[in-house]
Amino acid sequence: MFSILVAEDEKGNNIIGRIRSLLHAGRPKIETIRMREASFYIVKVPNAKSIKWGKVISALGKTSLKLVVQQGIELPDGEQVKKIDTTEYSHKILQMTIDYVFRQFKKPLKDIKMCLLDPRGIGLEYARIMIKYCGCLKIVTGKVDIYEDFSEQMLDEYGALVQVSESLENVNDNMLIVAPYGIDLELTVPIMVPVISISDTGLAHTFHSFRAQTPWRFKEIMPHNLDEHEYQAALYECCNVVKLSKTIATRCCCGADSININQMAKNILDLTH
C-alpha cells in the first residue's frame, strides 16, 4: 500500500460550511481506493500551506514513507515522511525503452560499438540488452570481475566482443554511451556521442527523464497535479503492478527539450552517421 497526499478546499459556500471547515481544520480525510490490481489511500488535507503534519503522519501510518505528493505540497524535513523512491521503476522503463530504440538501428551489428558505464557492477541487465544490438560492447566498471563470466558467455552465445575496463578510453569511438547511473569519471576528452541516462548528465546530446503513459484505468482515478512517474512507480513498487515495468517510454528529454521516443531514435541515428 501507498498513500497519495492531496489538498482540497473544504470551505463551504454558506455559514454552516465555513464553521464546519474551521472546526475540522487540519484534520485529514482518508479515502481507500480498491481495484483488482491495486489498493491505495488518498489522504486529503484542507490546505497545502497549513498542514498539521502530526495529524497527517498519524493518519498515513506506515505509508508515510511511500508517498505520492500533489504539486504544491512541501514535505517537512526529517525522516517521518518521504516520497516514493522511483529509482527501480525508472531503470525498468529505461531498459524497456532502449531495447525498443536499439531495434530501430539498421546498421550491421559488426559496425556498431556501444559503451556501458557501470561503476558499481550492478547493470548486468543493461549489458544483456545492449549486446543484442552491437558487435562490440565496452563496459567501464570498477567491478571487472563481475563482468568476466558475462564476457565469455556473450562471445559464445552471440559471437560478440565484450571489452571490460576500469577506464574510459577512446570514448568517441562508440556509437553511443549508456550511463544509467550517471557519469562520475574524469574525462580526458569531451564526450561528443549520444549519452542515455536516468537523469541529465549535463553533457550535450544526453537523453534522460524517460516517461511512460499511465494506463487509463489508473489515470481516471488519479488526483490532479500529481507526478505521473511517481504515481506509476508507487503502483509498481507497492502494489506489484508488474505490467507497468514492461512499458516503453513515450517521451524523454534531450537537454531541456521534451521529445517523443521515435524522435530520440532518429536523433541518435542523425548524430552517429
Number of β-strand runs: 12
Q: What composes the largest sheet?
A: 8 strands, mixed
Mean pLDDT: 89
Shape: elongated
Structural class: alpha/beta
Quick overview:
By secondary structure, this protein is of the alpha/beta class.
Describe this structure in words.
The chain has 273 residues and is of the alpha/beta class. The protein folds into 2 domains: 3-69, no CATH class; 88-211 and 249-272, Rossmann fold, CATH 3.40.50. It has helices at residues 15-23, 53-60, 87-102, 124-130, 144-158, 216-219, 228-239, 261-272; strands at 3-7, 29-34, 39-45, 67-69, 113-117, 136-140, 161-165, 176-178, 195-196, 206-211, 251-254, 257-260. The strands form 2 sheets. It has an 8-stranded mixed beta sheet with strand order 7-6-5-8-9-10-11-12. Strand 11 and strand 12 form a beta hairpin. Helix 3 (87-102) crosses helix 7. The longest helix has 16 residues, at 87-102. Residues 10-14 and 16-21 have low confidence and may be disordered.
